[in-house]
Amino acid sequence: MYDAIVIGGGHNGLTTPAYLARAGRKVLVLERRHVLGGAAVSEEINPGFKYSVCSYVVSLLRPEIIRDLDLPRHGLEILPLDGTFTPMPNGDYLWRVNDHAKTRREVARHSRLDAEAYDEYGKAMVEMGRFVKPILNMTPPDPTSLDPKGLMDLLFLGRRFRSLPDEDKYNQIQLMTMSAVGFLDQWFETDVLKATMSASGIIGTSLGVRSPGTAYVLLHHYMGEIDGAFRSWGLSRGGTGAISNAIASAARAAGVEIRSQSEVARILIKGNQAHGVVMKNGDEIRARVVASSVDPRLTFLRFIEPGQNGRVDA
To answer: Which residues contact 92 (CB under 8 A, 6 or more apart)?
Structure first.
């Protein structure tokens, strides 16, 4: 009998059991594929060549997780990402680097007005990033619940927003509702700069640069952090899968059992509560809690049979 079973060995599905095991729980992770990592995975597509299949850059990995699990000791090494290079049809280019002064001079080659706006834009985005970043660690409050903690969380968010200067409130609302291009059009005039920056608003979204809501994704690039350096992005040595492998190593060191090529067929429900899983080969594994890190549609439409009413921690 396990204290918890975690379905899916992605980076989130590995982080959860690592913390549970550190708290003294007996935990099992079940991963369908032969390789761990989920979307944060590196695979050898040609002999000797590893490729980051989905996620390819790191920065929003919470620094407290890196510290708590001591991921550098388990092989994590992040190499700073220096910048972006955008070629233009006329043979010119725009090269943005981590050095703000150099980037400002580069932008000024294309537009002095944009170079001045670039300073103000950076300051505004940093302030909005400082407002949003603490929220990433919060459990979203349920506005329909009468739970005092949820109500206090909502009150906390409301007070923080109210304390913002009017200009920051205006920018924050625009970021949450506008498209990347629409937002950038209000700041800059140079197409190559707007094209370079708007690309950051659609990464991982399956949307276009003119889709509402993509402006918020721009903010992620001002919330990145590497070793305490704000607004920093990097690449993991060995590919993104090296991050998942480091978390898996930390989880194993804490006592987590991880099984790959272990496909779950369904979640066992009894008395309106999950109490284990049935594997594809028919084996049953019992646990007090089942947590799923896979697609919620897969969890609730395939793993739970119709008519079952169970509590599944997803």
So the answer is: 192
Q: Tell me: the pLDDT tens digits for 258-291? A: 999 999 999 999 888 999 999 999 999 999 999 9
**Does 309 have pLDDT greater than 80?**
no
DSSP state of 212: T
Q: Report the SS3 class of residue 235.
A: strand
Tally of helices (H runs) and strands (E runs) in the chain: 11, 14
| pTM, full prediction | 0.80
142-186 pLDDT, tens digit per residue, is 777 777 887 787 788 888 888 888 888 888 888 888 999 999 999
Assess contact for 83 and 259: CB atoms under 8 A.
no
What are the tokens at 211?
């889709």
| Both structure tokens of 109 | 């080659």
Burial of 237 (0-12, 13-18, 19+ CB in 10 A): exposed
pLDDT tens readout for residues 74-93: 999 988 877 889 999 999 99
Pick from 24, 207, 96: which is nearest to 4 by CA?
Answer: 24
137-to-61, 64, 90, 154, 292 alpha-carbon distances in Å: 11, 10, 45, 14, 19
CA–CA separation, 249 and 261 (whole Å): 18
Cα–Cα nearest to 220, from 86, 5, 48, 58: 58
What's the CA dihedral at 247, 251, 254, 259 to 10 degrees? Answer: -160
Enumerate the β-bridge partners of residue 51: 43
Distance of CA 92 to the CA centre of its chain: 34
> 65, 15 in Cβ contact below 8 A?
yes
Q: Would you give the DSSP letter of residue 304?
A: S
Structure tokens at 4: 């918890």
